[in-house]
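Input record (one chain):
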Amino acid sequence: MLIADSNPAVWFDANSNQSQVVVVPYVEWAREARLEYQLNVVNSGRTGTSNVSQGGTLSVSPGRPQAVSTVRVTPQVGGSCEVDLTLREGDKEIGRYSYDCTAKK
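The corresponding structure, as predicted from the sequence alone:
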C-alpha cells in the first residue's frame, strides 16, 4: 500500500517590539527531509521600497519544528510589508507561504 506524502506544516511566529516586527518562519514535517528555502521580504511605503532575499538549506526531522530564519523588519505606517517563503525538495517546489507584516494602526 502506498501512502501519499503530505506537505510540511509551515507557520510564522511574529512579535512586535516597538516599531519592529520579528518574524520567524517554522517548518515541521512527518518525515526527514533536506529542503532548500527562499525567503523574501518586501517592505514599501511613502519613503520607498526595500526588498531583501535570503536562501539556504534546511534539515527537518519528524515532530521537531525547525526555524528557517529570523527576520526583523520595520513596517512603514500606511505601507505594505510581506514575508514570503518558498520551499523546494530537489527540483520540486513543495509550497509557497506568506505572512502579512503590514503595520497595524
